Every structure is written in structure tokens, then in C-alpha cells.
Amino acid sequence: MLVELLYCSVSVPSQLTHVDLDHILASARRRNVAENITGLLLYYRGEFVQILEGEEESVFNIYEKFIGSDPRHTALNKVHQNTISHRSFSEWSMGFVGAAEIESPMPSSVIGVLMNMLTDSAKSKPLSLSLNAFVSIYDQMRKSPYR
Ligand SMILES: Cc1cc2nc3c(=O)[nH]c(=O)nc-3n(C[C@H](O)[C@H](O)[C@H](O)COP(=O)(O)O)c2cc1C
Q1: Which atom from ligand 1 is nearest to the alpha carbon of 73?
Q2: Ranked by mean pLDDT, which of 50-54, 124-128, 133-137 comes out on top?
Q3: Quick one: pLDDT at residue 43?
Q4: How many domains, in total, are found in the chain?
């Protein structure tokens, strides 16, 4: 059974560097490929929002065992989990969106709004609506000649 899980957390220390984030992503992606997990990680002003998708057992295992015990963040708050019929991030072993200084074409103010939107909307309904809107906006921005 496919599920999606969304949580937020606070980074330790409150400002992770480019290099710290690269380390997190490298090991996350390695395991996610092996476990067939896809998703998205957002980092903005010391806060993470992450969406994980995959088989229920793999998602919960990774969330509990590896993500939950990682000292590089704290105050984990699982906002949402839901069964899904298809993945929103099927091509991303863990897409990353960070502030402008970490080479994201997305303005940092947009990330803040997006993080609020995802965590708010996830409280009441499936993620797919806001996620689909986000994915198409982000896709457009990546292709934009103005980035
Ligand atoms: C914000 C954040 C997101 C993470 N996301 C994932 C993830 O998607 N998949 C995963 O397996 N581990 C994830 N982790 C855990 C670590 O990247 C890593 O797997 C863990 O520290 C063990 O790494 P190692 O076995 O390579 O030493 C995450 C950790 C943090 C702090």
C-alpha cells in the first residue's frame, strides 16, 4: 500500500550550511533509492518540511529509524499521513528546495508561503491538490529563462 507522510522539524543548529544539507541529502537519497522512497525536502529559516512517499512499511521504517533519530533536527511533528493511489514525486529520490543562497531558483519568500500552505492544508485533506500545484509551479520555475 502506497502512503505519503508529511512532517516538519527544526534544524540543529538553527542555520545549517550548504555542506550540512548536502550530507543529509546524500545519505537520504542513497537509502531512498534502495527503499523506493520518493519525496521532497524543504528547508527555510531553520525549519524543515519533508514529504515522503512509498510503500507503507518503508516510509514508516525510514521515518522512525533514520529520520527520527537524526540529531541534525529536533521537534519532529508528523502533520499528515495518508494512503495514495499514485506518487506526486515519482522521479525524485528526494527533491530539495532551499533558500535562494542554496542555488534554488525559487525566491525564499515563496518557500515560506509554500511551507505554510503544505502544513496547513495537510491537516485537513490529501496533499495531492497543493502538491500538484506546487510541482507544476516549481517545474515552470526550473525551466524559466529568468532564473
Ligand atoms: C531533515 C532530514 C531529512 C532526512 N531525510 C531522509 C530521507 O528521506 N531518507 C533517509 O533514509 N534518511 C533521511 N534522513 C536521515 C539521514 O540523512 C541519514 O540517513 C542518517 O543520518 C543515517 O545516515 P548514514 O546511514 O548514511 O550514516 C534525514 C535526516 C534529516 C535531518
Answers
A1: 31
A2: 50-54
A3: 86
A4: 1
Q: What's the predicted TM-score (pTM) here? A: 0.81
For residue 27, how far is its CA from the centre of ligand 1 (angstroms)? 6
In this predicted structure, what is the pLDDT of residue 102?
42
Residues near ligand 1 with C-beta < 6 Å?
Answer: 24, 27-28, 31-32, 41, 48, 50, 52, 62, 66-67, 70, 72-73, 94
Rounded to an integer, the average pLDDT of 2-27 is 92
> How many angstroms separate the CA atoms of 66 and 60, rounded?
10
Assign residue 97 the CATH number of its domain: 3.30.70.100
Q: What phi-psi label fits residue 135: left (phi over 0), alpha (psi between -120 and 50 degrees) or beta? A: alpha
> What percentage of residues in the chain have a pLDDT greater than 70?
71
Dist CA 67 CA 105 (whole Å): 27
Cβ–Cβ < 8 Å for 106, 141: yes
**Inter-CA distances, 80 with 126, 139, 145, Å:** 9, 24, 35
